Amino acid sequence: MALIWLILIPFLGGLACWLGERWGEGVPRWIALGSMLLVLLITLGLWWQGDYQWPAGAEADAVPWALEWRAPWIPRLGIAVHLALDGLSLVLVALSALLGVLAVLCSWHEIRRRVGFFHLNLLWILVGVVGVFLAVDLFLFFAFWEMMLVPMYFLIALWGHSSATGFSRIGAATKFFLYTQASGLLMLVAILGLVFAHRAATGELTFSYMALRETPLSGEVAMWLMLGFFLAFAVKLPVVPFHGWLPDAHAQAPTAGSVDLAGILLKTGAYGLLRFVLPLFPEASQAIAPLAMGLGLVGIVYGALLACGQQDIKRFIAYTSISHMGFVLIGIYAGTELALQGVVLLLVAHAFSTSALFILSGQLHERLHTRNLGEMGGLWGRLGSLPGFMLCFIVASLGMPGTLNFVGEFLILFGSFPVAPWTVAIASAGLVLAAIYSLLLMQRVHYGPPRGEARLAALDGREYAMLLGLLALVLGLGLYPQPLLDTAGPAMQEIPRLFDEVAMPSSTAVPPGES
Amino acid sequence: MTLTATHLLALLPLILVCAAAITVMLGIAWRRRHGATVALTVAGLLVGLVALLVLWSRPPVAVPLLVIDGLALLAGATILGASLVCVALAYGYLERYPGPREEFYLLLLCAAAGGLVLATSHHLATLFIGLELLSMPLYGMLAYAFTERRSLEAGIKYFLLSAAASAFLLFGMALIYAQTGRLDLAAVSAVFGERPATWGLAGIGLLLVGLGFKLSIVPFHLWTPDVYDGAPGPAATFLASVSKVAVFVVLLRLVLGTPGFQQEGLRGLLAALALAGMLVGNLLALRQANLKRLLGYSSIAHFGYLLVVLVVGEGLALETSGVYLVTYVVATLAAFGAITLLSSPYGGGDVTALYHYRGLFWRRPWLTAVLTLSLLSLAGIPFTAGFIGKFYVLALGVEAGRWWLVGGILVGSVIGLYYYLRAMVALYLVEPGLRRHDAPSDWAGRAGGLVVLGLAVLIVLLGVYPGPLIEWVAGVEVAAAG
After folding, report:
1. What is the residue-averaged pLDDT of chain A?
2. pLDDT at residue A505 above 90?
3. Whole-angstrom Cα distance, residue A10 to residue A148?
4. C-alpha distances in Å from residue B75, one per residue of A355, B212, B274, B459, B461
5. How many alpha carbons fall within 13 Å on the CB side of residue A462?
6. Whose CA is closest to A327, among A246, A414, A391, A390?
7. Which A residues in the span 370-399 are in contact with B, Cβ-Cβ below 8 Å?
């Protein structure tokens, strides 16, 4: 039952926010904060109680879920409301809830218009995302996948910033929606193709993830269906040729929107690859692994290079996200246990550090009323402790040892090396680029000749607490990542097993990445 | 054959609606009372609906010209339900209309009866009678506000083009008759058995042209946006829902009941029409700044999607068309309902330009929520009714391996999404100094308001819990032609 509440609480909370607006501007904020905290507490409670170890000597038919909830929905089409939780989804749900809390907090002063409707959208994004992380019925999964776009669209279109020169906020929101919807529809077609292939093989019409995993598919069909799924997740991640929406969406979104985008929505892409693409189509995934890793490499370098040339601080951070997601992609398609554990850690780390940077740039914008790097500079010493925090998170983002980002990137590179040594070698060079753009950002914002003498407002208690909390998490988990590994690790053992099975029958298969 | 009680019972819905029309006519002749006329109309439609539901579990009944089977009942229920919505909307809309108000309901009842005949017909004669009984009152309804230039234009335009389409239809029927000597729908099947069947095939082609015009299938769609735009709100609502459902059902009966349509050539033709509809409808809607025209183009696209059912014509086809029609009608009724409410009471021309809708959310949040939901549903976003319909059509296309059509649906949906979003976001934008159009402040308490809110709830309900609808539609069967 707890699982359905994870979805219902933000849903009802959102409605309450909308209706609660009439009793004052503060009411929706507190309702939103309360429901986000409640979701967070439930997830932490589940974490505390649950046992996320993979059943010893995993049988193929063992149910891998720590928690399950199932109700019939459209029995005629074999569709059920089927929610399930394992270590991977638990980590990501907890992350979403935490970032949800931060998103409410960071818009406390930024959003002053139509507070109720804003928080409705904020909470409903969480409904969609938690639904995506929990659904193991493909129809339900798709429904949540598409549904979370609508509130995000409103968030960008109604509360975003229109830059004077570039894109309008509505344009950015529409672009975001169209990219994801177009690729999502392809995924729907692939889902249907898979379901009908399953029916052709077994005579049973079902959308259940566990059943569809057993579908026998011919190589060519599997490849096409896999591409349908891959494209949808690649757009969300984003993988480089499909990243066009990300910088615009980030640049025009309000701070809370950016936090949700970077911290939660991008993670759904990686989650989809881990949960659906690899287990459903191990052969086809193995076959495109070299290509996917190549795209990851391109992403690392491309994101880093373009980041250096940005004038808008939020676009800057958006491009660094693309670069980081390149590592994630490489780790996922390396498919070794170590690399996959690194992927989970990097996802969490990236969510923390990038959200923190977006929150910081939101705070800069509140004080300077600009996001243009050219108009910043020399802010160190004028802003109280803000530059110090920024330095910490930039250092985290470039993967300094001691932070969680380092552990993640290190594990990915270490785990991918046996599979694809050259890819790893080039990707490591990307770390140097990361150092360059990170320091460039710091330099342009906080050092150099100051533009004025007046001291700007220092961080207040709320902002201080948010940043300090994030920093503690980045450092704490960076020094002791074992809880995360323990939780998400068992769920990650499945994929290497599948990959090995694929590789086993034909020992002559070329290891991916050696071309 | 003799008419027995069973036959009479089966025809009861039609008889009741016709009786209501006559009663309303006599009532108007006796004394003009807006409220009483509406009450009579509603009563007639409701009794008809109840009679339909009574028939539900009974086996199909066929009389020489009509057949009352599951499909007819489903379509009939949709038609009567949509007519009720139109009556509720018209009541508020015509409240301050300067001219005569009561005749609108008379026309509406006649057209609803025509729709029922059409949905139950399995003979070319009833097909024609039903179509004309549906169309003739529609001319009057579309041009009802005849002092308004655009309404008159809409009526005349629809009249002229519709008459031309009827001529095609009649000529087609004549050719089929010349070939086979029969006029029942089975004659259409017989055409394919004849060698050479040139004239009969030409007749079928003309038949399709006539029906395609009513459904605004590309390339017979040119009237749609103008007529939608000019027509008074309730009439446009009726045109977009009842008329489309009735005509599509008869086309469905024609195609599914005729094995000859399974030929690859004819299927290819239908597939081409479907693709053209999806793409043309959506592309033309892209730059529209007028909400009613936009919905007109969107309906063209939707019937493009729906044609996929005819192309595949087997497996889930019947179920798909039922689900799609119901979800489409619900969404369309809600969208037009919201527009009509904003234009109520009648004050010369409807509120149609998109910029009139700017910032509506901050004045009328619930009404905007209705309009948003209906647009989302038309765009096919999950957890709204429209998604279930789109899902079914896609599933049908994938199952039959019609990849071109699947591709068309994908491209069409993405293009469609762009303009639905554009229309939707306008509802929430605030810019100072705009002319403000508004629904009466007590809109939600009125009949039209309640109905529209109910439709919005239905959109969500069908989207979140479509099980009952699907089970219901899946049980529908078509009586064999003959």
Report:
1. 87
2. no
3. 13
4. 53, 18, 22, 18, 20
5. 13
6. A414
7. none
pTM score: 0.92
Assess whether the previous peptide bond of B365 is cis (omega < 30° from 0): no
Helix (H) or strand (E) holding B348: none
**DSSP for residue A164:** S
Say how far apart CA B426 and CA B422 lie, in whole Å. 6
Write down the pLDDT at residue B303: 95
Q: Do residues A197 and A226 touch, judged by C-beta distance below 8 A?
A: no
Measure the CA angle with vertex A124, ends A120 and A127; round to 5°: 150
Q: How far is B467 from chain A (nearest CA, A)?
A: 5
Backbone angles phi, psi at A237, to 5 degrees: -60, -50
At CB < 8 Å, which residues of chain B contact A? 361-362, 376, 381-383, 387, 391, 394-395, 398-399, 406, 410, 413-414, 417-418, 421-422, 425, 428-429, 465-467, 470-471, 474
Report the 10 Å Cβ neighbour count for A435: 16
Q: What is the pLDDT of residue B18?
A: 95
Please state the φ and ψ torsions of residue A208, each to the nearest 5 degrees.
-75, 135
Q: What are phi and psi of A312, to 5 degrees?
A: -95, 125
Could you tell me if residue A513 is left (phi over 0), alpha (psi between -120 and 50 degrees) or otherwise beta? left
What six digits make up the tokens of B417?
A: 């999404």
Among positive and negative, which fits the CA dihedral A191, A194, A196, A199? negative
CA distance readout (Å), B57 to A111, A374, A450, B74, B477: 57, 75, 82, 12, 12
User: DSSP label at B196?
Assistant: S
Give whole-number Cα distances, A214 to A56, A210, A226, A488, in Å: 21, 7, 15, 23
Beta strand A79-85 with A67-74 is: antiparallel
Side chain identity, residue A340: L
Contacts of A173 in chain B (CB under 8 A): 421, 425
Chain A residue at shortest CA distance from B319: A76
Q: Is A153 in Cβ contact with B418 (below 8 Å)?
A: no
What's the pLDDT band for A62 if we cut at 50, 70, 90? low
Across residues A130-141, what is the average pLDDT? 93
Q: In whole angstroms, what is the distance from residue B305 CA to residue B275 CA? A: 8
pLDDT in tens, A398-438: 888 889 999 999 999 999 999 889 999 999 888 889 999 99
Residue B331 has pLDDT above 90, yes or no: yes
**CA-based radius of gyration for chain A:** 22
Q: What is the dihedral of CA A56, A60, A66, A72, to 10 degrees?
A: -160
Chain B residues with CB inside 8 Å of A139's CB?
Answer: 391
Angle in degrees, CA B142, B144, B149, rounded to 5: 85
Measured CA to CA, the distance from residue A181 to residue A197 in angstroms comes to: 24
List the alpha helices (DSSP H) in A148-215.
Answer: 149-159, 169-202, 209-212
ipTM: 0.91
* Sign of the alpha-carbon dihedral angle for A132, A135, A141, A147: negative
Nearest residue on chain A to B475, alpha-carbon basis: A76
Mutate to test the interface with B, among A132, A158, A189, A245 (most CBs of B within 10 A): A189
* Phi, psi angles (nearest 5°) of residue A72: -65, 145
Alpha carbon distance, N-terminus to C-terminus of chain B: 15
Question: With a CB-CB cutoff of 8 Å, which residues 95-134 of chain A face chain B?
Answer: 114, 117
Q: Give the H/E segment covering residue B481.
A: none
Sequence spans of domains, chain B? 7-474
Interior angle at CA B49, CA B45 and CA B51, nearest 5: 115
Please report the pLDDT score of residue A58 as a whole number.
Answer: 47
How deeply is B279 buried, as exposed, middle or buried, from its count of CB atoms within 10 A (0-12, 13-18, 19+)? middle
Nearest to A268 by CA among A402, A460, A125, A413: A125
| Cβ-based burial of B442 (10 A; exposed 0-12, middle 13-18, buried ≥19) | exposed
